[in-house]
Amino acid sequence: MTDLVACLSSNEKIWPFIEKLVNEQDWKKVFLVTSEFGKNNFKCKKEIDFIVIDTGKPVSELVESVRKNLNGKITDLEVALNLVSGSGKEHMAILSALLKLGVGIRLMAVTKEGVMEL
Asked: What angle do CA 37, 59, 61 make, to 5 degrees?
């Protein structure tokens, strides 16, 4: 499988979806873009590489932070991406960072039937 990049907001109601997404596939690596709160409180069976961002900063700074934290760590030419959690600002930062790194994107969703590519 490929690497997973997902946004994890501080809204804990959405966390079960992210946990299912992480646990139901055999990802090479899992990167969660989140706040300090998310890093300290989200629990999962698998090893996670947390990319902690400060959403109070301008989006351009968030892009650079995500890009720097992913640079050299992605194991393939594409990543699986899930943006069900988080804000538009966070989503733009993640998308921009991935595009600047030159990786392809496969959108993933959690459905009643399980995890699937859109």
From this structure: 80
